[in-house]
């Protein structure tokens, strides 16, 4: 048995997971329209390669990756491109972004699948490319392009691949159902990822509140070399840094990447997507999304085509708008509210939470911080949230940074326990944004300063050079004059200058008359 | 229903500051009940009148500071401060003593500094110390406990003591801490035999009051209203110091560890005063240090200082030191090898 380590803090919120686990994964079907944002991942948005009116097949690329930190988008089914335009997208900012709008034709005709032959003997670089071309980005919620994490970094070998099956947020069961029902795909994908990374140790971490998934995974992993590591349930054990600490007892240095200590983390959903892309030759066009909360009568896990409007899923799950108070994309701890049900499901949408007011009450007005320290006890990053709150209110950016604001993972554990209902995370987000903006300002100012100085320096240099040239000319003329008269003392510089000027004038007049 | 736009987290734990304060009030009940049993209804009258004064003063302060009144009163913190101060006052205190104490606690210690959460000093202890320094006679006149001969006043008499103090004939008696402190000639054994105010281990009645406050404190600990660090730090250091200097009861003895633990305001202070989060150190390690230093100060002032009990002074001194403790006990942030600088 591998030794399990604990991490500081953490909380045990009510799980509410059984609500959505009553049924197996159900297909959500094909909606009337699919809205596919070109930026469903972190990094550069993909560049559309289709035009309105164009017919596309399922699996066909409709937007190509823009550089290495980007992934393409594919059509989830056959149909016609209706528009390439800005539409509301699921994002905390509530903004719109470029989307490809597709009208499915109901025939679901597919482009030829392109499986990768014999992947376990293949060149890791080619496999990485294949994974990028399949449009795979982290499906646990962050949406970081998977291929980037797989790209080798010189001098930094990977010793451990961690497959994250923790799913520690309450309500969400998308990964749980995936592991129960498609454990073989998860293990197969994990092995492919391990091959790409040079066969490190593979650990699949999972909380002990998912006994069925654990059994299925152990079954599927027999003889594969993937070790299933079970540990006690505690939020946020699924945070990348926390999971690394649980499994390896090591911490990722502040500001560094897991790869810097020889670790790569991938979500179980990502592993399954890699399996589909490599073994079945299918790009990423669907995902499992949990739809749950007391405002839906049929909570469950749905296999959803990317681009499916939230509205479509709500109808399927028996949504009662009259009792719903907020529409949360993601879980109750880290999810964000969406105000437009026309927003689509994207690659990172693991959950739609539709609580009633009684279930997740509107927060009461915050009371004074009584410095009870519960927040510090709950913080998995061992920060002092109450101090950060204090400095955040005072806009004391220096202290905020000295107290490691940027090590806050925004898990919400502090705000969860705060008896005064202070929206702590909101303060941290705002302060982070302010500090980043200020840094950018400072950088811009620095650039401007450098530009200014360069210009100043150029002007000075030119002036200097001019002066030097003048000086040189003067010396040359004097030398000439000296040579002509043969005697320094007798020469009259004023006379000489007058003569030179007259000569020049004459020459100019001469030149002018020639024109 | 219009959809809410709020930021995460959306779920919230069960604790709530109002409930925390209510629980603290509830936790004082066993102690207050035992006090009433031993000393009569004086403390009850103190608390009832003191709470009304505190709420009125809090209302005035909030109005002057243009803060939401009802919403802030709802945090119950004024009543908690009032109760803690009134428990510390001698039973049958006159009304003006209570009013001055409340003014110092609510206005001077709390609102002058910006209200709940901003007060560097524990308001109840500020009130207590102001009174102790200004009115030492009234503040050290304790009623004799049940079982020492005197009759306990009735509720009516208690009201009279409070609101018409000039018509009330107070019967008072030196407290156990005084007796031991002033003792010079007797061995502890002899002293115990001679002094009715000494009980089984500490002050007569007092030891049971202390145990009742301990029960309330343990209940709060079980409800996780605070962590064990500060109380354990304080009780440990008092026990260690008093054990170190205990000489088995000669006339110069300063009292056994049990005497110091159960005597005076030790247990009340450990669970109800130094656990006030606002004015204490912040981190768990910091609170352990904070509690231990308070315990040490309590013992030192008790045996060497001019005042028989010392919890209030010790707490205020350490309130002052709390930011320094915080500075040296900051937790190490994830992924950092050293503690962050302040
Ligand atoms: S939990 Fe809330 S009230 Fe308690 S110290 Fe932290 S921020 Fe202050
Ligand atoms: S949100 Fe930040 S400060 Fe709050 S508990 Fe999580 S990591 Fe700590």
UniProtKB/TrEMBL annotation, chain A:
Pfam families xrefs: Complex1_51K, Fer4_7, RnfC_N, SLBB
PROSITE patterns documented for this protein: 4FE4S_FER_1, 4FE4S_FER_2
Cellular compartments annotated: Cell inner membrane
GO molecular function: 4 iron, 4 sulfur cluster binding; electron transfer activity; metal ion binding
EC number: 7.-.-.-
One GO term of the biological process aspect: electron transport chain
Keywords: 4Fe-4S, Cell inner membrane, Cell membrane, Electron transport, Iron, Iron-sulfur, Membrane, Metal-binding, Repeat, Translocase, Transport
Limits of the 4Fe-4S ferredoxin-type domain: 359-389, 398-428
Cofactors: [4Fe-4S] cluster
Top-rank taxon: Bacteria
Family that this chain belongs to: Belongs to the 4Fe4S bacterial-type ferredoxin family. RnfC subfamily.
Protein name per Swiss-Prot or TrEMBL: Ion-translocating oxidoreductase complex subunit C
From TrEMBL, chain B:
Superkingdom, taxonomy of origin: Bacteria
InterPro entries the UniProt entry points to: NqrB/RnfD, RnfD_bac
UniProt keyword annotation of Iron present: no
EC number of the protein: 7.-.-.-
Membrane topology per record: Multi-pass membrane protein
Modified residues annotated as FMN phosphoryl threonine in this record: 175
Cell compartment(s), UniProt: Cell inner membrane
Membership in a protein family: Belongs to the NqrB/RnfD family.
Protein task: Part of a membrane-bound complex that couples electron transfer with translocation of ions across the membrane.
Subunit structure: The complex is composed of six subunits: RnfA, RnfB, RnfC, RnfD, RnfE and RnfG.
UniProt name for this protein: Ion-translocating oxidoreductase complex subunit D
Originating species: Chromatocurvus halotolerans
Gene name, Swiss-Prot/TrEMBL: rnfD
């Amino acid at each position: 048995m591998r030794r399990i380590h604990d991490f500081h803090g953490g909380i045990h919120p009510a799980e509410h997971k059984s609500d959505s686990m009553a049924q197996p994964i159900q297909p959500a079907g094909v909606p009337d329209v699919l809205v596919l944002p070109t930026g469903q991942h972190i990094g550069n948005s993909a560049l559309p390669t289709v035009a309105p009116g164009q017919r596309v097949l399922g699996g066909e690329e409709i937007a190509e990756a823009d550089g290495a930190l980007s992934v393409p988008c594919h059509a989830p089914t056959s149909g016609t491109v209706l528009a390439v335009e800005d539409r509301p997208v699921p994002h905390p900012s509530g903004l719109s972004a470029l989307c490809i709008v597709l009208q499915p034709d109901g025939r679901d005709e597919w482009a030829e699948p392109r499986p990768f032959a014999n992947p376990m003997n293949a060149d890791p670089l080619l496999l990485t490319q294949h994974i990028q071309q399949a449009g795979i980005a982290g499906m646990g919620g962050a949406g970081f392009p998977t291929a980037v994490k797989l790209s080798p970094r010189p001098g930094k070998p990977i010793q451990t691949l961690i497959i994250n099956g923790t799913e520690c947020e309450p309500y969400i069961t998308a990964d749980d159902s995936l592991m129960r029902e498609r454990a073989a795909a998860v293990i197969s994908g994990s092995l492919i990822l391990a091959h790409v990374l040079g066969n490190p140790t593979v650990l699949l971490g999972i909380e002990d509140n998912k006994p069925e998934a654990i059994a299925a995974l152990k079954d599927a992993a027999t003889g594969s070399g993937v070790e299933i590591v079970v540990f006690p349930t505690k939020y946020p054990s699924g945070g990348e840094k926390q999971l690394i600490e649980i499994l390896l007892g090591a911490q990722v240095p502040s500001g560094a990447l897991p790869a810097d200590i020889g670790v790569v983390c991938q979500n179980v959903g990502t592993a399954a997507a890699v399996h589909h892309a490599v073994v079945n030759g299918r790009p990423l066009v669907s995902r499992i999304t949990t739809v749950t909360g007391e405002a839906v009568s049929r909570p469950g896990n749905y296999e959803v085509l990317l681009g499916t409007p939230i509205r479509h899923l709500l109808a399927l799950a028996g949504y009662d708008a009259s009792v719903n108070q907020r529409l949360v994309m993601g879980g109750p701890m880290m999810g964000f509210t969406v105000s437009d049900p026309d927003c689509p499901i994207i690659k990172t949408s693991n959950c739609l939470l539709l609580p009633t007011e009684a279930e997740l009450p509107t927060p009461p007005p915050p009371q004074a911080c009584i410095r009870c320290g519960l927040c510090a006890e709950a913080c998995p990053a061992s920060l002092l949230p109450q101090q950060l709150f204090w400095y955040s209110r005072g806009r004391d950016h220096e202290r905020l940074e000295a107290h490691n604001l940027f090590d806050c993972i925004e898990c919400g554990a502090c705000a969860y326990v705060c008896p005064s209902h202070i929206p702590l995370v909101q303060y941290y987000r705002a302060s982070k944004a302010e500090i980043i903006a200020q840094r950018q300002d400072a950088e811009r100012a620095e650039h401007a300063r450098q530009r200014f100085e360069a210009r100043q320096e150029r002007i000075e240099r030119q002036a200097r050079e001019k002066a030097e040239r003048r000086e040189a000319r003067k010396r040359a003329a004097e030398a000439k004059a000296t040579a002509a008269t043969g005697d320094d003392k007798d020469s009259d510089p004023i006379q000489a200058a007058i003569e030179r000027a007259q000569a020049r004038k004459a020459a100019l007049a001469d030149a002018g008359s020639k024109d | 229903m219009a959809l809410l736009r709020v930021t995460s987290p959306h779920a919230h734990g069960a604790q709530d500051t109002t409930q925390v304060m209510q629980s603290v009030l509830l936790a004082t009940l066993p102690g207050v009940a035992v006090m009433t049993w031993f000393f009569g209804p004086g403390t009850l009258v103190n608390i009832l009148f003191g709470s009304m004064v505190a709420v009125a003063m809090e209302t005035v302060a909030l109005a002057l500071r243009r803060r939401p009144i009802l919403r802030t009163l709802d945090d119950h913190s004024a009543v908690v401060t009032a109760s803690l101060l009134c428990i510390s006052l001698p039973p049958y205190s006159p009304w003006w003593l209570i009013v001055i104490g409340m003014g110092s606690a609510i206005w001077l210690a709390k609102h002058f500094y910006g209200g709940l959460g901003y007060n560097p000093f524990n308001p109840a202890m500020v009130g207590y110390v102001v009174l102790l320094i200004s009115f030492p006679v009234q503040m050290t006149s304790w009623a004799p406990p049940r079982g020492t001969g005197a009759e306990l006043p009735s509720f009516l008499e208690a009201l009279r003591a409070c609101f018409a103090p000039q018509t009330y004939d107070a019967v008072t008696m030196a407290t156990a801490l005084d007796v031991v402190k002033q003792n010079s000639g007797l061995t502890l054994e002899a002293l115990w035999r001679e002094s009715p105010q000494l009980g089984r281990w500490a002050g007569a009645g007092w030891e049971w009051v202390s145990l009742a406050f301990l029960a309330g404190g343990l209940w709060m600990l079980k409800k996780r209203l605070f962590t064990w660090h500060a109380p354990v730090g304080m009780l440990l250091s008092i026990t260690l110091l008093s054990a170190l200097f205990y000489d088995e009861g000669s006339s110069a003895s300063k009292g056994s560890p049990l005497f110091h633990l159960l005597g005076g305001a030790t247990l009340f202070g450990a669970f109800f005063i130094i656990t006030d989060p606002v004015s204490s150190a912040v981190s768990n390690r910091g609170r352990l240090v904070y509690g231990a230093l308070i315990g040490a100060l309590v013992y030192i002032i008790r045996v060497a200082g001019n005042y028989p009990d010392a919890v209030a002074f010790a707490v205020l001194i350490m309130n002052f030191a709390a930011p320094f403790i915080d500075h040296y006990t900051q937790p190490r942030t994830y992924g950092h090898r050293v503690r962050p600088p302040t």
